[in-house]
């Protein structure tokens, strides 16, 4: 049984905090006691709140991520049973850290291996698309975890 999950993107301000917020909500609804966190592979946004567009799309869907703060993945993250990367570049960078945790791509969960596209230089529609993809993948993830 997976007891801890870390979601990882590049900046830890757009995609992975949304994934963390959605997963926390789904875990709570299912009554699951799972440690859920997120991190970035880069050091670009350490200590910063999520991007305002991610906060907004989360809020529109009943997920509050405004209290989260950016951090960079580090060796202590080997404590997570499962680390889920948002795209292949992040997957490759996490893989190089040799943390020993099981590593997966978010798109492996019902999205045919699709990458969660970086919305940073996009608009509200791109953030909504990210939200929809994450919600679908995380529902699938919890179905698999609970098998
Ligand atoms: P994220 O999006 O990886 O989903 O948090 C990005 C955030 C910041 C940057 C790139 C992607 N950046 O280049 O600063």
UniProtKB/TrEMBL annotation:
What SMART domains does this protein map onto?
Answer: LMWPc
What sequence ranges are listed for the domain Phosphotyrosine protein phosphatase I? Answer: 3-144
Any Pfam family:
LMWPc
CDD domains, A to Z: LMWPTP (cd16343)
Coiled-coil-forming residues are none
Which InterPro entries does the record cross-reference, listed alphabetically?
A: LMW_PTPase (IPR050438), Ptyr_pPase (IPR023485), Ptyr_pPase_sf (IPR036196), Tyr_phospatase_low_mol_wt (IPR017867)
Q: What is its EC number?
A: 3.1.3.48
> Has UniProt tagged this entry with the keyword Hydrolase?
yes
One molecular function GO term is: protein tyrosine phosphatase activity
- List keywords of the entry alphabetically: Hydrolase, Protein phosphatase
- Entry similarity comment: Belongs to the low molecular weight phosphotyrosine protein phosphatase family.
Q: List the protein's name.
A: protein-tyrosine-phosphatase
